[in-house]
Here is the input.
Amino acid sequence: MIHKIAVIGDRVSVLGFRALGMDIFSPKDSESTRRTLIELATGDYGIIFITEDYAIPICDTIEKYRKKMSPIIVLIPDRFGSKESGIEAINLDVEKAIGKNLF
Here is the structure.
C-alpha cells in the first residue's frame, strides 16, 4: 500500500511542498487544523508534516497519534523559523526509538 504525504501550515510556508508531490492543507483556525489532522491520520497518509505554529494549539491531538505506528507526524518550522518545539519532538522520538537521547 502506498501512503501519501501531507503538509499542514500557512499557505506561504507549505506551498513549495506541492512541487515535491505532497498534498498541502492550510486550515483557517486551530479547530479546522484538528479536524484536518484527524481526517489525514485516519486516511491514506503515512507522513504528515505540520508547522510548529499550527501544531502547538492541537498538541493533545498530535500526541494521540504519536503513540501509534502510523502516520508519522513531524513538526517543521514555518517561513519565520523554528520555535524549537519541533527539535524537542524529534529528540523525544529518537529517544523512544533507540532508548537513549543522542542530542
